[in-house]
Design goal:
58 strands, about 850 residues, about 40% strand, 13 helices, elongated, alpha/beta
Length: about 850
Amino acid sequence: MKKSVVVKKSGLLNRYRTIQQGIAAVEDGGIVYIESGQYQENLSVDSRKITLIGRGNVLITGTQNYPLLKTADATVKLQGITFHQKGHSNAIYVKETSVIEIEECTIEGENYPDVKTPYPALWIGLESTVKVKNSTLIAHTSNSVYIQESDVTLENCDIKGFGLYADLESKLNTVNINIKNPSSYGIYAKEARLHLETINMTGGGVVVIMENSQGYIQNLTSNHTYRDVLRIDKSEVTIEKGEIKHFCEMKSEDNKASYPGISIKNNSSVKIKDFNIHDSPFDGIQVYQSHLELSDSTISKTFMGIYIREQSTVEIDNLEVNKTEYNAISIANQSKVSIQNSTFHQCVDKHEKNYPVIFMKEQGSLAIEKTVIKESSNDAIYIAELQDAYFQDITFDAVNTGIYAHKSVVNAEQLTIKNCFKNALILFDCQAAISNSYIENNNIESTPTYEANSDVPKAVDAALAIANSKVTLNSLDIIDKTASISLRERSKVEGTSLRLSGGVFSLNSDLEVSFLSFTNLEKEAIHFKLLMESSAKVQFDDPDISILLAKDINSFMETNLIHPPHTIVQHDFASKTSPMMPTKEPIQVEMNNTESQAQEKHQVDKLIGPIAYKESMQQLLKEISLVKIRATQGIKLPHHWLMLWIQEGMDDLQPFIEQTHHLLQQVDLFGEEEFYRLSTMATFQELTQIKKGLLWIDQLENLQNDPDLVELLRKKAMDPDDEIVMIFSGTEDKIKQLQTYAPELWEKINDQVTFSIYTAEEVAEIVRQKLVTHQFVFDTSFLRQAIEENYPNDTDERINNWPEKIVEAIIQAQSERLLEEGNQQFTKEQIVSLTQMDLFKGVVAAPL
């Protein structure tokens, strides 16, 4: 027996031409050197200690259905050898307490895709120990490595084709391995232990699957996987440092595909730290009936951030989530979640429905501390049916609603809620305590609480909206443009140390407050509005102030004021439902509105007429604004606009023309005299003298019979020196004729409005404006509701006269009521105050 031999395919004096001959020739612990060449052998090493070292390009291959190398109770070191199995079996088969070292080798498995029993490239079992270093493992039909009841280490290796499978109490340790395009998964552990460091996978299926296993994973990266990245089932694992991106890519081919970046289920326990998940069409993390600790991590540009269900427990610390398509965190099914030191930024895209940044329902508990939620067109937090919700030191900025709570127990302190598009807080069927919080500049997208010349606040616009709830408020500053607090449906609120900028609205509710102050006492039209058996017991910081109160006869207020509240409105609140809570439709956010645009929108809001007409005017003002700005830059844009007004239900458009003319005067486009109407011109040649102004073409039949007039208007519409707004109006049939006989002129028309019969909403707005013009004070929301409920199903042109008739009937109903009262003299407040019964009677009595 020799210590070493050399195996060589050629040479007359060479004694060892096969590797198996060399193995047989060396003593235990000996070395077999293998020269370059292809060796078709099936090697076997049993109960031996031996080293096989390749010199040059050494290829061991075979076509028999038997492993290229089989060991049993052996100690073997392999170096510099390529194993390529062309038969139907393993490339290397290791069993029965063997100890194997593989270095700088390539191991390629069989390629028999149609067989029922594929073989792994490297099979390790029966309490063996294997270390593979600086090698490549390739599999075509089964695993690159299959491990059973053994201890395996891979270092600086490449895995291709199929991944690694660790089974039955095996231990798999990896350091710096690269997995490329595995067919199903990179690593599968079943009842095994994993220790993975620096693992990278590109393409393919799942990176790591753990089932009934334990493990530690560090420095995991993956890119462009078509399924999930980590799938953890009934397992315990710690994951530190990593980045996964572009996972679940098969969703582009199968829209029903739902593979999150990390899936955790069935009583698993997972710790994740310093991890980055981004750019995927599906969720970052899903948790089912498991425990997750997540810290120092980021999730961005995913479908949802974290999806939590089935009594899971999740602890989150220092997480940043941004630009998710739907909820950043969605929680349900009696789960318990805590979040701290985290930031949610620009989460949730715009949708038809409202998808909150953090959503939780179906019992369970939620605790959020030291967290920022900002810049979302949806609600920041929505909770329903929670046993315990605790919020501390949270900042909400530029979201739809800060917190919307339903049927939950809520405790909150040190909240900062600002720049919400709707309410700061909504509590519905809740028990809540809110303290030491600051609320500022919310309800940005809401209409003003107080209509022009009206002193009745809207409940739905309150910064803090409460319904059927029991709430304690302590040390709150509310600085909003709207009402500060709205109560309804038998709510009970106790408060102390409240500083409010807006009024308090109470409907069938009770309020008891001490140390209350108003920050803008003089500007508020009404400080308290109490309706439907509401009560208010208020102790003011300064008892020497005067406040304004609106209430009905069944409500009362007790104060410590030296001067009794001045009551300016007495309401008959008869059998009508209360204002609705805010709807949950998403808000369209315009972040760059200029002051001039806001002013123009306000001007348009004052206009009476169809919604399409108002939108058309809004667009016109926007274009005019652009022309003016470009003029200051020395850039000249066309100064002419052509509009088409189609009469379907309205015969008289004169009021709308006058409104349009007045609007254009307000924005300094035209002067008062620069208004021209075709039907009033003595001769159409007057058109040649018009260089600037509003031109109303109201007799389209004149155009049909006069091609010269059509040509004149066409030139007028194209002249770059003219500043003209040209409006063509007529019935639908005449408009169609215009398109036929004046096609070139028709092409210049860039906007059209259809004037049909008024909608109920438009009627309500017209009536409201007319009543406000006459200085009446009334409940706007009730007026709209009364008109909508009594709007006729079958309408004709007579409905266009209905607004005027309603105004007359409302005033008549109020007059009859005032005359029936016993007062000898009337105050102005009585005369201008319309009760809800006045409104209702007027709407019902108005003839059609």
